[in-house]
Amino acid sequence: MKTLYIHIGTPKTGTSAIQDFLDKNSSRLKEKGYLYRRMELKDFDRNMATVDEEGNLCFRLFSRTMGTVGKKRNGFFLHGDRGVLPEDNLQILQKGLEEVKAWFAESEKIILTDEGVWTDFESWDYGRRIKEFTDQNEILVKIIVYLRPQADYLDSFYRSRVKWKYQSEDWETYLSEEALMDYFGVDYERRLRAIADVFGKENTLVRPYEPALWKTQGKDLFSDFAEALGISDISGCALPEALVNESLSYNQAEIKRLINGMAGENDSTLSGYTKLTRNASLLCSELNEDEVRYSYFSAEEKDSFMQRFEEGNRRVAREYLNREELFLSPPRIFPKWEKDPLSMEEDIVLYFGAVTRRLYEEINRLKKENKELERHSLGNRLHRFFARIKNRLRGKKASGSARGAF
Q1: 55 vs 52, 129, 275, CA distance in Å?
Q2: One-character DSSP codes across 272-317
Q3: Which is it for the CA torsion 106, 111, 116, 118, positive or negative?
Q4: Nearest Cα to 16, choosing from 70, 81, 96?
Q5: Contact between residue 120 and residue 13 where contact means Cβ atoms under 8 Å apart
Q6: Domain boundaries in the chain?
């Protein structure tokens, strides 16, 4: 039967790494009967084409709110864009589904991936529309979702939002925003129920995100994801060589958070500034690779926070995994991060140095670009043209004088 696998996150569970894995191994996956393919820009409104902060061609997502989405997230059309009209959203959804329908001529199994489906699932009527489309075309939908302990999820997501300039509020404010927590879907039981009500509990494949446990079992994220697809052997597949979505250190996240507050979140004129500050923060985080691993939660705070979800997580484990506990690995306990003037002082100096270095590199790039523009400018081209004519005339005159002398 035709089967559509939709990987929906959650965010901060290796989604970028999974997308990179799928992209690198699309040919091998096709040999195994699974089709993963990037969506072509030609199939969508050209106004959606843009360039991300690293210069890569990608789609514009949440035009004035959430920046861009890389082309490896081929399921971007499965959830709405709050920056456009509802009818435009539906048109984009329909175009994407029609393209997927054409893909089934090549393979019985298709893979789509985009973590935005998880965060936006309860905000849109997309689930029902997708189900109607797949039922009409006799396509079975399988939803793959990874879950990690809610405290770790929010800790990591907070630093990610700071990195991408979506967050300037401090940790306590962030944690107290109930609407934001609802959007993130930290109540796993409720969000899974909404998904299962549309696609069926038996078609909702829950995968606990537990790298430490996988390591003891001789597995990793990629073999676990392949297992969810029904693939038992990924030997010979290319694995991502490095982190696909690097995190900021805690000190650098605090510096970047304060910098974020200096610029409006939706001010597109500051995209270059955002890129500069983010790259500086990432560079400094790389320089401090040996930094002690921290958490925004103390051990007591983490335990108290996780108790809010204890019963719901247990019901998820019973209903989707047929076991008593959702997470089998013991909770990871790290020292609570707090501002330390001495350590912050060193990181501020590093940040200042990184920013000046980036500015120096950008100034040199612009100088070279300016020289090229000058060299190819109309005025310079005309100047060189007339100089060549003048030199030829001089050469002819000199040649004629030499003949006259004889």
Answers
A1: 5, 34, 11
A2: HHHHHHHHHHHHHHHHTTTPPP-BSS-HHHHHHHHHTTHHHHHHHI
A3: positive
A4: 70
A5: no
A6: 2-245+314-333, 250-290+340-406
Tokens 């038996």 sit on residue: 202
> What is the reported pLDDT for 41?
53
CA 105, 107, 110 angle in degrees (round to 5)? 110
What backbone phi and psi angles, to 5 degrees, belong to 262?
A: -85, -10
The answer to whether the beta carbons of residues 240 and 17 sit under 8 Å apart is yes
Q: Supply the pLDDT for residue 24.
A: 95
Q: Within a 10 A sphere around the Cβ of 345, how many other Cβ atoms?
A: 11
DSSP 233: -
Closest CA to 261 of 349, 167, 156, 355: 167
* pLDDT tens digit sequence for 87-125: 878 888 999 999 999 999 999 999 999 999 999 998 888
Region of poorest pLDDT, from 68-77, 79-88, 144-153: 79-88
C-alpha distances (whole Å) from 26 to each of 18, 191, 226, 241, 254 are 12, 30, 13, 17, 39
pLDDT digits (tens, 9 = 90+) for 189-217: 999 999 999 999 999 999 999 999 999 99
* Strand 34-35 versus strand 109-113 pairing type: parallel
The answer to whether 309 and 150 have CB atoms below 8 angstroms apart is: yes
Query: Which of 15, 304, 319 has its CA nearest to residue 188?
Result: 319
Closest CA to 223 of 236, 215, 233: 233
CATH superfamily of 2-245+314-333: P-loop containing nucleotide triphosphate hydrolases (3.40.50.300)
DSSP code string of 364-399: HHHHHHHHHHHHHSHHHHHHHHHHHHHHHHHHHHHH
